[in-house]
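Tokens for Tryptophan 2,3-dioxygenase. Go.
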Amino acid sequence: MGRALIRAGPGIGHTDTHGRDDSVKRDFSPVLPGEGATDYARYMRTDTLLALQRDPAEMTHRDELLFQVVHQSAELWLKLAVAELTEAAARIGDGELAEAELLLARSALAVRLITDQLDMFRYLPPATFQALVPVLGNGSGAESPGWKQAQAASRRLDQAFSTYLADRQIDLRKIYSGNPADPVYRLAEAMVEWDERVALWRVRHYKIAIRIGSHGAIGTQGSPANWLAKLIDHRFFPELWQVRTELGGEH
């Protein structure tokens, strides 16, 4: 499939032994089942994907496209992150810590990309956001299915790690006081990285919400910012953070 997608790129042809380019003779007709004029469109399901946003005739403001693209792409990245977290928990259960560590790194990168794309909202003035509010109904980011699944997957990961430590009578304090190359230490740090990336995403989300005027400042009565600010300090793996804090305090 990868070769088929690459060979279809513009300007890439095949030259025979006589120096003649025969790219125009090759048949690139789609061979995969499904809808779409090309195999790329059929495999990536681009016709369906690009139809998920509101039609221009339905929009109350042109920036609805920006708003939907940011949120819909975040759901896709969260779907990937959840898949990696779920597999990582299974690998821990099988004692494959190095593999779990790599999967967690992929999950953390997905959240970093979600965080970076929030910068698109810098181009959404408060007046524009207010124009979008009616079409959002009672919708809230807290209802994101990807986020709910990420929370559940993180809890499963924590349980898998805790079970691994308990079954082998591993003391986290000793691990963190020992060799950073230890597979348990490295896995614990990958879990901390995931936790931190999620926290940074929340911070950026909060700051953007303040910037576009969708939330009042912290302390404003009834402001969603009060709820969002509390989530910033939430930790999926509090034990890992506590061990680090205790060891740091001792020194």
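The chain has a mean pLDDT of 86.
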